[in-house]
Give the backbone structure.
Amino acid sequence: MTSPTITTNSNLAFVRADFETLTEGLDYAARGSTGCNFFSSRGAFEQAVGYAQIREKAIDLAQAFDRAGFERGSRMAIVAETTPDFMYFFFACQYAGMLPVALPLSIHLSGHEEYVRNLANLIGKAGANYAVGSPELIEYVREAAPQLEMIGTPANYFALPTTGGNLRPFQKNELSYIQFSSGSTSSPRGVVISQRAITSNTRGILRNGLAATEADRAASWLPLYHDMGLVGFCLAPMMGQISIDYMATQSFARRPMVWLQIISEHGATVSFSPNFGYDLCARRGLSEKARSLDLSNWRVAGIGGEMIYPNTLNEFAKIFGQVGFSKNAFMPCYGQAETTLGTTFGPVDSGFTVEYVDREQLANSRKIVRAKVNGHTPGDDYRPFIKCGGPIPGHKIDIRDDLGSPLPEDQVGRIVVSGPSLMDGYFRDPEGTASVMEADGWMDTGDLGYMSDGQLVITGRQKDLIILNGRNIWPQDIEMAVEKIDRIRSSDVACFSVSLAGGGERMVLVVHCRVSASIERDELRKTIMAKVKKASGADCEILLVSPGTLPFTSSGKLSRAAVKSLYLNDELVDLAQPQTSFNSQPNEEPLAAMAG
Amino acid sequence: MSNAELTAKTVFNEVRDLLEPYNPNAVDIVMDTDLAAELNVDSVAAMTLIMEIEDKFDLDIPINLLPDVNRPRDLVDAVLSQAKSQ
């Protein structure tokens, strides 16, 4: 197609995900004229593929898979670039009764070995039988997993004969795909998603989360190997016959403003990003070129995937409000790969609500005591949290204490969820599955939070929480405080705690150091220590390391678990003090190296 | 300068200028300087750097080349091969 697909089908009734399998949804969408559009890193339209074309190609491939003897239930790893080929192969697997597994891209300089190791780990965990990737990337796969039954480019698979091949689509009581969790607190796990889960979740997203209509159009730069990109901006739009405009994730990393340009030029009404995406754009500001944007059609600007910071959203709204962006479009959401994608959504057209919570009470008793806000922002004694809405219909959220008893509103505890969107479990990992799935059908999300007037508020990851002398310390608070220091940038700080041999815990801070004179380093160390004391009331060990040392997950989240693992393995070198001055050594076993 | 006239030397000179902001210790940047170890190019800086190189030469550098970019020489090669193919 030589122009982008239309927004609203004129010849097909709008159906909001009222389907029981993905193929049923695609069969329906293929009867209209909507579909997927791909844009260059500078925002130029490159190509469009309608849902009809995606279905046609997927069916061709599915027949070829059957003819070639690919078994039902086998796994196909797809290196998930944002291209039409990803859609063809993902849906071919649906028609062939095979489980697709999206693999990440690597966008790091000098990252060859690390990428191959990461691919080998994921391919092994998914027990993949086949792999497909573009000509540019397939060599990494060959290097990572030469043993697979077939490794090839899309062209290699399209060249397979199709005659006589049958379709064996997944039925409604069967599985759909494997999604790797992002792995910010543990090594990535293969989340098994069923047809029930994906259809329930996309229905909840379209009907209740977004309140989607036939006038909606989506835009996305989110990676297709993450749940927010795959479910939110590939499967959900398809299940609602909604056209979508894509730019590649790596293009966004270089040119974030192109995201807004595409929304402006093609009239997207729905687009999501983690907090950092809004931050990147706000930092670029309103350049001459950006002044000609028109963001007035953008009715749902979703935020999820990481902690949400009110300052970022306020800044974004202030800058882009000048070109039509409505602050009411903001919609904080919560979910994870284990619940397919979305569990809670903020109310439509209402923006976001901030609560200011007394830090002392939160640290000492996990109790929510709100500041009285009289038109001014409370000071540093209060921590801002954002309300993330209530659960989609058919799903429940509970807050429980460590022993499993339910907690009332305004009390922080473990967030557990139940409902049809829950995963079946981790692939070939009964132990991991048992560690999160509770006997009564509830799943422990690993997050901590509280309910506020029926809306969920997230306070942090349970595994990241630091408990020093009975006080709850949220590492992101400490990191943010330290990042405010001159010469320290965002993503320069990791905070975690280690158990000490003699009992108790020690807080550790690993900080990228961008000064080289030793006197400046000493100065920096003192400033950091002072900030940490002020923010937490506790002492800590500080390691100043070379920039680039801190590991991030494939979604760009700091992996505190991986930093801790480096620390425990003695792989971090303090630039100023090679010898640690602490007498008591941590007694934790070093974790296996974290990928992701 | 049109892209048709690019040589390894002219490209390197431009790349070296773009790398200077990531050179706090003022090392002498040569074709074989290690970007990660000798310069201060982390993953965020890498994205900005690639964008600047793309803008300078008005071409697109495929991101899948990045894992094997270790030295200025690799960046120069990427620019030359893309200039030829675009």
Summary: The interface with chain A takes residues 24-25, 35-36, 40-44, 46-48, 50-51, 54, 60, 62-70 of chain B (CB under 8 Å). The longest helix of chain B spans residues 43-57. Residues 3-85 of chain B form a domain with the Non-ribosomal Peptide Synthetase Peptidyl Carrier Protein; Chain A fold (CATH 1.10.1200.10).
